[in-house]
Amino acid sequence: MKYKDRNYLQLSREIFKSQEFLDLSLAAKWLYFVLCELEHRFIGKEDFFFRSNEDLAKDANLAGTTLKRAKKELRKTGLVEMFQIEKMSNITGFRLK
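Predicted structure:
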């Protein structure tokens, strides 16, 4: 989405009032925003999208170990739903709530 010549990402203000979000590490918060941006880019007919850990680490500019910790934090909060795609063990599907 664009407004004039600036890019922006639309987020609910409720996220900033959520204690689950406020308690997250900076890496997990950053990953959440990256996932929101990816959701806008990749969601079509389906209500989920998938990324490999390698692609997601590049998208978020996070090291692999940091990415795994941030994903674990987000999974605990329930802000995102993640699932493993069966035949591709390194691919994770995401559904934002």
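Summary: Strands lie at 2-3, 6-7, 49-52, 80-84, 91-96.
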